[in-house]
Specification:
Chain lengths: 621, 273
């Protein structure tokens, strides 16, 4: 299919792109390394080598060099510089940036086509999950029996921290990254995102930050958990500086991405695509993005203050200078709890979408589903202090925060109502996405209910800092979000590749991961109830059985994920062809060819009814 | 989902041709972003007003994010003052040392040995100077706003160039003043256990980050102002193509407002509660 742009711009195409023709991931890495080296030299010359903060300063400046060089190398500064000089992109430039006729090379460049960005997010997410997963296996191997010492305690702590942060980053983008980019613009009838260059910026900013995070391991790691609460951060080496810089850059990435998604949904819907007719996943994307716009500036701020404390001797979190760790805890958790819903909501929305299509029924009480997602986002900003119940901060506020936290179970309960209502008496098509969606529901029940227990102050006083908490949030992040992410991948995989995700391998993977999650985290609940603390590399023999079971479960999960990886690799190139609309769905992404052409539509559609109006004959078939 | 294609093939071709023309126009209108864009009629049929509306929403969202950061900074300032941990909001009670400037004078100007250290005291930053910097920022915002109004009324892009340039220069003045202000933030040398080190009290820390934030905003304003000047002089901004001026003005005014808010807080709430 030729697109409208292609009709008129082929002749100009060879002239477009300018400097971007020479920029790609390779030049980005080269630029990053070069600038990091230059900045390192400058820092060594200009900073006081006798100062306490010398190593922190050199590391921070080196990290800044990597980021700036990477952005130069990938082409992130081309647009702003051309704007400054009044030399805006021509259509040929835009076509080049969109990756037209560049084959697979466009996946390694600052490409603006939302579908390319979506695929790039899939790859980045899988890479992050792979690294985080390997660290998880290292942790579980260390904990397989008491007194085990595959790694020393500092290295173990570094594994814990990096595993936590890498997985958090991966899950934040696991669903919103690929699918709010690849399918959402098509779902609403748009030719692309509102700001395609910002879209590419968001992706490559994330890549620059993620690479910096992995580099933390090379400079001594991070040894105090992903929340990096002060004042224990003072004890960490320069890995803390790179970590803080990672978060600062990541916050920029998520803010840019969030603005783009919100603007796209609110201003680029095609004719007739009212907010009540958008597929429910679109609501998940916008509530997530709006929440990220509120939450991540706090993340940005708290890590900037950490950097200042470490590099220029300020006293925000250092009580010896008049600061307080509680300030850091408050700022962090103002971000930290909404961030859970930034991660969770896209998974829920994807499951709504899958449930409706696979049950051949409209989303049960669409407005309730929307209200639940919006309500959850709104409430999530009022609950941060439940993470500080046992810290001693403002005990009189414990009651109100316990109530707001427990109120969150109402929109969460509505999620289940909508999902079960949608599936109820539906003609359920038990394909791979549906199976993973059911896994999501089962695990989310356990993760959600244990969350209610933990919001209760007396119980939290007993269980805070134990493996029970770890098991609870792993049921949310692994049992729910990861299952939702795989369900979404299996659902939209045919639209990306034109092929089904291998059903047989996918089912084997599902059962391995599902059983593995129960084995791992139910045993972890038991460890926690017996009093086993989190973040310890060795433990009493009274916890040995449950830890052994947990580690066995973790290996089962890993084997399931490896099978899934095999299924993805096999299916991407040689899977069963799916055609453009394998699920007989009605939303727009299934109405365009597979893979969708540049700019998606030759002629813009006009929408006259909602996407879940499955016709009788279609339901029967 | 029931879908009507908007037109038959012939009409569609006409729309495409029209769209491509509009696309060219849009590109030179506003430096529009990316390779297409959507909206009511799709990327090729968008008017500059539609693109402007989208960009304005983006600016408001970015300003919203900036508001959250400002709220966090003010929360930090007020929280540190409220808690006054170890009595160190301004004064390093219990520690001995000297203001940095005192050491500087003793060691590098006058020479000689140090007298016995005394309890360190930090004075609030100069309210007059703080408000002066704020005033300069507000003036720069006023200039760009005036320039936009004049451009929209007169459609004369030539006269906008000096106005945008003036606003840029004033923003640069504010930037320099902010650097001067940053250098005046009281640092201290603390002596403890036979060692001395430089530190900021929590008050000085909070002021430092507020002024640092202002500095970064000034750099952005200078970049934007310079860009407007160059673009207007090159004809990219003209009497009919003024939308980006409004976008920049929105951000500029927000920066001015945030300066006023910060100045009001730090010059009035500056004693231990």
């Amino acid at each position: 299919m030729t697109t409208t742009l292609e009709h008129t711009a082929v002749a100009e195409e060879s002239q477009g792109g300018g400097l971007a023709r020479y920029q790609n991931a390779g030049t980005a890495v080269a630029g990053g390394v070069l600038f990091a080296f230059l900045f390192w030299l400058i820092a060594r010359k200009t900073m006081d080598p006798t100062g306490e903060a010398f190593n922190d300063q050199v590391t921070t400046i080196l990290g800044c060099g990597w980021i700036i060089g990477f952005w130069f190398g990938i082409g992130a500064f081309n647009g702003p510089m051309r704007w400054l000089l009044g030399r805006d992109h021509s259509r040929a430039d835009d076509l080049y940036y969109a990756g037209h006729n560049q084959g697979r090379a466009r996946y390694w460049k600052y490409t603006t086509d939302h579908k390319v960005v979506g695929v790039q997010y899939i790859i980045v997410t899988m890479g992050l999950l792979g690294v985080g997963g390997l660290l998880a296996m290292a942790i579980r191997t260390e904990l397989i029996m008491p007194g085990n010492h595959f790694v020393n305690q500092q290295v173990y702590n570094a594994f814990i921290s990096l595993h936590g942060m890498i997985m958090i980053l991966a899950l934040i983008v696991a669903i919103a990254g690929p699918w709010a980019n690849f399918v959402m613009p098509i779902m609403i009838g748009a030719r692309d995102m509102a700001f395609p260059r910002l879209n590419a910026l968001s992706l490559w900013t994330l890549v620059s930050a993620a690479s910096l995070l992995v580099a933390v391991a090379a400079v001594g790691g991070l040894t105090m958990g992903w929340v990096v609460l002060a004042p224990i951060t003072d004890q960490n080496g320069v890995g803390m500086d790179l970590f803080a810089l990672t978060i600062v850059v990541f916050a920029v990435s998520s803010t840019v991405g969030g603005v783009n998604v919100v603007c796209t949904i609110l201003t680029m819907r095609t004719k007739g695509m009212t907010l009540e007719r958008v597929p429910i996943f679109v609501w998940g994307a916008i509530t997530t993005s709006a929440l990220a716009l509120y939450a991540f500036p706090f993340f940005f701020l708290v890590e900037v203050l950490q950097l200042l404390d470490r590099n220029v001797a300020t006293s925000f979190f250092v009580s010896g200078g008049g600061g307080t760790g509680w300030l850091q805890a408050n700022l962090f958790w103002l971000m930290g709890h909404p961030e859970v819903y930034v991660i969770l909501t896209p998974a829920v929305a994807a499951c709504f979408e899958i449930a409706a299509v696979m049950a051949r029924k409209p989303v049960f009480s669409y407005r309730t589903a929307v209200a639940a997602m919006v309500g959850l986002s709104g409430l999530s900003i009022l609950v941060w202090a439940h993470h500080m119940f046992t810290s001693g901060w403002a005990p009189t506020l414990g009651g109100p925060f316990m109530v707001t936290t427990e109120i969150i179970s109402i929109p969460t309960g509505l999620f289940f109502l909508v999902l079960i209502g949608t599936l109820w008496r539906g003609h359920i098509w038990m394909k791979l996405p549906t199976i993973w969606m059911f896994g999501f529901i089962a695990n989310f029940i356990i993760g959600g209910i244990t969350g209610i227990y933990l919001s209760d102050i007396p119980i939290d006083n007993q269980l805070h800092g134990t493996m029970f908490v770890t098991a609870h949030f792993h049921y949310i992040f692994v049992g729910s979000v990861l299952f939702g992410a795989v369900a979404a991948l299996a659902f939209w995989f045919p639209k990306v590749t034109g092929r089904f995700l291998d059903e047989f391998l996918g089912r084997i993977s599902f059962w391995l991961v599902f059983i593995g999650v129960q084995v791992t985290f139910l045993a972890m609940f038991a460890s926690g109830l017996k009093g086993m603390p989190r973040r310890v590399s060795s433990y009493s023999v009274i916890f040995d059985h449950t830890n052994l079971i947990t580690t066995i479960g973790a290996y089962i999960i890993m084997s399931g994920m490896l099978v899934l990886l095999g299924a993805i690799i096999k299916s991407w190139g040689h899977g069963e062809p799916s055609g453009p609309n394998p699920w007989h769905a009605n939303s727009l992404e299934w109405m365009v060819p597979t893979p969708p052409p540049l700019e998606n539509f030759d002629v813009m559609p006009v929408i006259t009814e909602d996407p879940y109006n499955f016709r009788e004959e279609m339901v029967r078939s | 989902m029931s879908i009507d294609t908007q037109a038959d093939d012939e009409t569609a071709d006409a729309r495409i041709a029209e769209g491509n023309a509009a696309h060219d126009q849009e590109r030179h209108h506003d430096g529009g972003e990316g390779h297409g864009g959507g909206g009511d009629g799709g990327g090729h049929h968008e008017s500059p007003e539609v693109v402007d509306g989208r960009q304005r929403m983006a600016i408001w969202l970015f300003i919203g994010g900036d508001m959250v950061i400002l709220a966090g900074l003010l929360f930090t300032y007020l929280y540190l003052r409220g808690t006054n941990t170890e009595g160190h909001w301004m004064n390093m009670v219990g520690y001995t040392g000297h203001p940095w400037s005192y050491y500087y004078n003793v060691l590098f100007v006058k020479g000689g040995s140090l007298p016995n250290p005394t309890t360190v005291s930090v004075n609030p930053v100069s309210a007059g100077f703080y408000w002066f910097v704020t005033l300069v920022t507000v003036v720069s915002a006023g200039i760009i706003w005036f320039g936009e109004k004049r451009l929209r009324a007169s459609r004369d892009a030539k006269s906008f160039v000096p106005i945008a340039s003036l606003a840029t220069v004033v923003a640069l003045v504010a930037l320099v003043l902010t650097i001067v202000q940053l250098r005046q933030i009281p640092e201290i040398f603390v002596t403890q256990n036979d060692s001395a080190y430089m530190a900021y009290t929590s008050y000085s820390s909070a002021i430092l980050v507020l002024e640092g934030s202002a500095l970064i905003h000034m750099v952005v304003l200078a970049f934007l102002g310079l860009g407007l000047s160059i673009r207007a002089s090159r004809g990219v901004i003209s009497g009919d193509k003024w939308y980006q001026v409004r976008l920049v003005r929105l951000f500029w005014v927000w920066v001015a407002i945030s300066s006023v808010i910060v100045a009001a807080v730090v010059t009035t709430v500056n004693t231990i509660h």
